[in-house]
Amino acid sequence: MLSSIRERYLHTLDQIAKAAAGSGRIPEEVRLVVVSKTQPLEVIRAAIAAGISMFGENYAEEALGKIAALKETEVEWHMIGHVQSRKADIIARNFSMLHSLDSSKLAEKMERICSELNRTLPVLLEFNVSGEESKFGFSAWEENHWSDLKPDIEKILSFSHLHVNGLMTMPPLFEDPERTRPYFQRLRKLRNYLANQFPQVQWQELSMGTSVDYIAAIQEGATFVRVGKAILGPRVIKK
Ligand SMILES: *Cc1c(COP(=O)(O)O)cnc(C)c1O
To answer: Would 171 be classed as within a structural domain?
Structure first.
């Protein structure tokens, strides 16, 4: 039984390294974002003390409080949840990367704000590859409709303050990772399609895989895995 954040963190890093090596990849290709949504500050402080320096948050305002409280640390914050347009400013000012750019409307708003702030924001485009209605992201579950995505993507790629690095997805939740694997495969296939259509862009990043299925995600090409519960423990229910 792994009883501390540090033990679970080291165990996860070990699993990541093994999964990468087992698929002929180098472990450094895969980065671990520790998902701290709804976790209180004490837990994040304990995680920092355990050596964790990259956190993923889902809710702009909740994250803002944590980021302010931990300003003196060397932590990197990644936004992984749906961002409402009116919260775009919080993201542009406080985050290192946006994994969940899910509409051209949000992209437009982010571009305007980043331009005002004179910064470039690394972003990933979020795709819904399952068709599950509750999921955000550009619709991409039907491969023969992928060409419909091109006008939106072309527009986002024209924004000079957004740096598109790759793709992200959040598949339906299954306990058995073999049920999510096909969605990871579809995201990788979509990446290859986009790399073909838009060769001027580096589509190297694939953000996919959570506590239950990050090993399968790495086997399918993940470069970012987003792991919460398996390291930080159960979440406080959000009221
Ligand atoms: C909550 C969340 C995760 C992490 O889920 P765990 O089950 O805690 O590992 C990863 N990605 C996104 C987008 C999330 O909302």
So the answer is: yes
- Residue of 82, 106, 79, 109 lying closest to 94 (CA atoms): 79
Mean pLDDT of 209-221: 98
Could you read off the pLDDT of 101-115 as tens digits, one per residue? 999 999 999 999 999
**Pairing mode of beta strands 76-79, 54-57:** parallel
Q: Are 86 and 41 in contact (CB under 8 A)?
A: no
Identify the CATH number of the domain in which residue 179 sits: 3.20.20.10
- Pairwise CA distance, residues 52 & 113, whole Å: 29
pTM of the predicted model, to two decimals? Answer: 0.97
Residue tagged 């472990």 (tokens): 27
Please give the number of the atom of ligand 1 that sits closest to the Cα of 170: 13
Question: Tens of pLDDT along 68-90?
Answer: 999 999 999 999 999 999 999 99
The helix or strand, by DSSP H or E, that contains position 51, with its residue range, turns out to be none
The answer to whether residue 237 is domain-embedded is no
Number of folded domains in the chain?
A: 1
Pocket test for ligand 1, best of 125, 129, 210 (most atoms within 8 A of CB): 210
* Residue at 113 is within a domain: yes
Going from the Cα of 158 to the center of ligand 1, the distance in angstroms, rounded, reads 30
Is 239 part of any domain? no
Domain span at residue 170 reads 2-232
What is the residue whose two structure tokens read 């009116």? 86
Cα 54–Cα 58–Cα 62 angle in degrees, nearest 5: 95
Question: Is any ligand 1 atom within 6 A of the Cβ of residue 221?
Answer: no
Confidence grade of residue 238 (pLDDT, cut at 50, 70, 90): low
Strands (E), 51-135: 54-57, 76-79, 97-101, 121-128
